[in-house]
Design brief:
alpha/beta, Spore Coat Polysaccharide Biosynthesis Protein SpsA, Chain A, Rossmann fold, 3 domains, 23% strand, globular, Glycosyltransferase 2-like domain-containing protein
Amino acid sequence: MNEVSISVIVPIYKIEAYLSKCIDSILDQSFTDFELILVDNGSPDNCPHICDEYASKDNRIKAIHKEHGGLLSGRKEGLKNAKGKYVAYIDGDDWVDKFYLDILFNLAEVNNSDLVVTGHFREFEGKIETVKPSYSGVFGEDEIKSLILPKAMYNGAFCEHEISTYVWSKLFKRELLSEILYEVPGEIVMGEDAAITYTYLSLSKKLTISKIPLYYYRQRHDSILKSIKDTSIEFYRLGVLKNFLKVKLSPFLNKDNLSTQILYYLYSMILVRSGGLIHDASGKVIFNPFLKAKKNSKVIVYSSGSFGQHILSSNSKSNFFQIVKWIDIDFHKLNIGDNFVEPLSSIVNTEFDFLIIATINPSAFKSIKAELVLMGIDNNKIVQINTDEKEICSLFGQLGFHND
């Protein structure tokens, strides 16, 4: 017999400035039949004390302290201590709407679903963007296998997922999650959410997708800009992810479909993490994904989000492009090296050769491009990202990904 309906698991590491807001939003839920498992993942700041303090005041809260072992290990430790019928993961620097658990639970129970997927809000520098699935509905096992899973990681438009990778903004059945979570290799640091979500999806017999956004994802500068210190380790970890997905999903997908999905998913991750420009061990650029833009081109970078920051950081190492300006419609104070974010109105057509829109999402790219053209930006100067499958395969060969 389950003691509670939902086990809410919050992995915690170096987020003391945000943790109380996260916990308070969970304790304020309209739905009360839950336990809250706070997993202190060896945090060196005040997070352990915050966890213990909350646990001492509310018997629904369990504080667990462990040595630091990465986000995945925190999620595993939380599940080991969970007793709920369902599991909801919430990151400790995010927060949720008052009716978050209530709606998740109802969607799962009414539709007898193994997995519930919802929309979310993205908060960045005080501005909030609504992100919703492209469709909603209830899908049975046959539809999951034939319609959802073949497009889960790559739906034909680079880079769009049929099902988002995040484990947050979802509700899992604890027993089914226990079948797959402990098998996810600890070496997977990037893409651990995808390893969990897509493997779990392949075993699900009923899926419910809702467009209702109730989860607030906080995108922070200090969590975005993480440079690749050792590319060999980084690519090895992605190789582990590739092989795990290949082994777990091959019983459900044909070889070509699975290879294409994994290829584009890993490519998108490599682009964002590397800042687009791929360097070899000596620092030489071996792959430039920005079509038309050549070495020494005068470039404007649009967007100060994750990809934009990595482009600036990566280019500062090789000086491949001459970055003449960094702009964003969401103007705020931020600088990398000698480049400061400037408002959209500061662009002058004659000062640059090409403009890079720093997004790998094609829908976002089209929307931003249309707005830039309205502002008088030369359409021919806005560059696309190279998505040629043969060239991406060649890149992966150079990086060693064809060697299992």
